[in-house]
Amino acid sequence: MKPNNIDKVPQSKIGLPPPERLEVSGLSGDYPRGHWIAPHAHDAHQLIHAALGVMRVTSASATWVVPPGRAIWMPRGQEHAIRCHTGVAFRTIYLSQAPRGLEKRTAVCAVSPLLREILVRVAEDPLASANQHLAALLFSELAASDTLPLDLPTPEDPRLRRLTDSLLSEPSDNRDLADWAKDLGFSRRNLIRRFQAETGMTFRQWRRQARLLAALEALGAGRSVTEAAFDVGYESVSAFVAAFRESLGATPGKYFGRDAL
Description:
This protein has nine helices and twelve strands. The chain has helices spanning 113-124, 132-143, 158-169, 177-184, 188-199, 203-220, 225-231, 237-248, 252-255, and strands at 12-13, 24-31, 36-40, 45-52, 55-58, 62-66, 71-74, 80-84, 88-95, 107-109, 146-148, 151-153. It has a seven-stranded antiparallel β-sheet with strand order 1-11-10-7-4-9-2, with helices on one face. A five-stranded antiparallel β-sheet has the order 3-8-5-6-12, covered by helices on one side. The radius of gyration is 19 Å and the shape is globular.
């Protein structure tokens, strides 16, 4: 497994050019909070948009959180599962070809207003799928999108998985490396070395990213910034807001288009 360095991942542009002939189809559905889509894969590439609500998407190697108004690109053949953290307005597009750089890469993408309108149109109107001008415009907008650092690598070692699964379910857990090493049967030094080798991140970086993703879920579900900060283990709101802004380039209030507190 190639480790992913999540901390301070810069936004990046997806590549062009669009294909000469692009086959697309769409699907739309509204799902309640807690809805679970079991692990599966598709023969086509997939762009999954949360028009409303928050999704957590998982694979064998990583976890992604998709806030409202964003989308996740899933390459063909990649097995994944989806959990609706809130009620979700689910709009998805299947594509026969991928922008350069996304052929085998899963990523959360920014969704421009134009991409959103095209995506929803194709997802909700079967006739729109046959419109090659619309398909080419969708592809071009997707290729120009930024990818967002909203993923978290999953280690393969079963003992390390116990650690990461625990922190994903309880991000406010403040146990330090010495505590975890004792619980898991590692020396502290060996735990540090193994964790970074399997995730590409330090334990501190990984826990910080886990808290960020949990906070995005909480904020997307309507929790206030103060509630989200303390829910995920921050000791002060200012520290949480600073970490959020450093990772995503905006305060929580601006990111979600509402007052920060």
